[in-house]
Write a structure and sequence with these properties.
Helices cover about 10% and strands about 30% of the residues. The protein has helices spanning about 25, 95-100, 120-130, 160-165, 210, 320, 435-445; strands spanning about 5, 80, 110, 135, 140-145, 175-185, 185-200, 215-225, 230-240, 245-250, 255-260, 290-305, 335-345, 355-360, 370-375, 380-390, 395-405, 410-415. The termini are far apart.
Length: about 450
């Protein structure tokens, strides 16, 4: 069942401009490759099926609902535990293997593989156009010749895969309310946020000329607990963050002032996370790639979080999801999928608590599903997991929950708890002019 795939092409130095894909290679998209660049065929063992277009919305679904589980009838195939994990060792991210050893009551529930990933046809069309035009510039810190779709559907090195993750389609705009939990010494503390995201890169009709080095605009207002209520943040995220740094402003209701944050990137700490989460772990990885050396290890079949509809269902109390040491494993789903494996090693002269990272990136959607985190001594200190679903209103894959485990002290951070909140509004009337420091104070009041 375990199979390792060689990299499609040899890795090239990120300091070079990466060659565009030959049109003959691009013509494979929608043929033997899916429109986003995955292998369309299943594996020889039959444990990974062929991709046939992704999941469709169940007939019972209506916009605004929490997304019904299309695979609720699937039977559990097996469980991976501390007692039997040696049998599956080659298919486990190192951090997940460590988590099993540290928490003998944790079990990975493995289900049949469902290749549910889908995206709008315009994203498929843009991806094929990008394949023959997109290229890295500025030592890999930016790109040109791409808009809307995945920039590198037939990747040649690790940094292209990371750009695919950063730029994979997540809708045009999104308004949602969810919670994050900081779990220290087994005690969870929840913060509720009203969030808005205005995506620029992936918008319908977007062209490379219109991008103006803008990736997205992001804003939130804290609504609970009372001591943090009305705290607000706005972020203007550029595409090339070395050419133009990320801009962020925070409003504090204590002094009713808006303050420009000196930095909200790399290893700076995310506000209100009790130092558990750095800025660049949001969405499993975000921001400029310039502080790491990137290398493509290859493609491999791995047991990873996938089709996490069960933990997404409406009405589940948050204390049934967030337990003292881990998420409730009885609500989680793991499947066997082919993933790209990318290593990142911190460049000389920079510092970060995560001196080395290994990313496991879904071939079907380009969503990062798991990350092993190591310190400068090479010791495994953390595990990130994204528990994704394929949304229905706007076909796309994105995480419904993200978790960052601090393996050594047992503390962890969770983001995305939305079971008791209104569902995401992908058609919200969001004005990009509202993502400014001038508008931030109004949001906080």
């Amino acid at each position: 069942m375990y199979r390792t795939f060689a990299a499609v092409l040899l890795s090239v130095a990120t300091s070079q401009v990466v060659a565009k894909v030959d049109p003959l290679q691009a013509d494979r998209l929608g043929r033997d490759l899916t429109p986003l660049g995955a292998e369309q065929a299943g594996n020889n063992e039959g444990t990974i099926p062929a991709w046939t277009g992704g999941v469709s919305a169940p007939s019972s679904y209506r916009p605004g609902m929490h997304h019904p589980d299309p695979y609720a009838a699937d039977g559990e195939l097996f469980r991976v535990t501390a007692q039997n994990q040696a049998q599956y060792q080659a298919q486990l991210p190192a951090g997940l293997s460590d988590l099993l050893q540290r928490h003998p009551d944790y079990a990975m529930r493995v289900f049949p593989t469902r290749r549910s990933a889908s995206a709008p046809q315009r994203i498929y069309d843009a991806t094929k156009a990008n394949a023959v035009k997109a290229e890295l510039i500025a030592n890999g810190n930016g790109l040109r010749g791409a808009a809307a779709g995945v920039p590198f559907p037939i990747p040649q090195d690790g940094i292209e895969i990371i750009w695919n993750h950063i730029l994979h389609y997540k809708g045009d705009q999104n308004h949602f309310i969810n919670n994050q939990a900081v779990v220290i010494n087994g005690n969870p503390n929840l913060i509720k946020r009203d969030r808005q995201i205005y995506y620029v890169y992936g918008r319908e009709g977007m062209t490379t000329a219109q991008l103006d080095n803008t990736l997205l605009l992001y804003k939130y207002v804290v609504t609970a607990p009372a001591k943090l209520a009305n705290t607000a943040l706005v972020v203007q995220d550029p595409l090339d963050q070395v050419l133009a740094t990320r801009k962020a402003w925070r409003y504090s209701p204590d002094n009713r002032r808006v303050r420009r944050l000196p930095t909200l990137a790399y290893d700076s700490v995310q506000p209100d996370t009790s130092d558990l989460a750095t800025a660049d772990v949001l969405d499993t990885y975000n921001g400029a790639p310039d502080r790491y050396e990137w290398s493509l290890v290859g493609k491999q079949e791995m047991l990873v979080p996938y089709n996490s509809y069960q933990v997404h269902q409406k009405g589940i109390p948050y204390d049934q999801i967030v337990q003292t040491k881990t998420l409730n494993p009885e609500l989680l789903r793991y499947e066997l999928h082919r993933v790209w494996i990318v290593d990142a090693v911190l460049r000389t002269g920079y510092r970060h608590p995560y001196a080395a990272r290994r990313f496991y990136v879904d071939e079907d959607s380009w969503q990062i599903l798991a990350v092993d985190l190591r310190d400068k001594e090479g010791e495994l200190i953390g595990l990130q997991e994204a528990h994704p679903i394929n949304y229905y209103d706007v076909p796309m894959v994105s995480s419904t929950l993200e978790t960052l485990y601090h393996l050594q002290d047992g503390n962890y951070f969770v983001d995305g708890l939305d079971n008791n909140e209104p569902m995401y509004d992908f058609n919200a009337n969001i004005n990009p002019r509202d993502f400014s420091p001038q508008a931030l104070r109004r949001e906080g009041n």
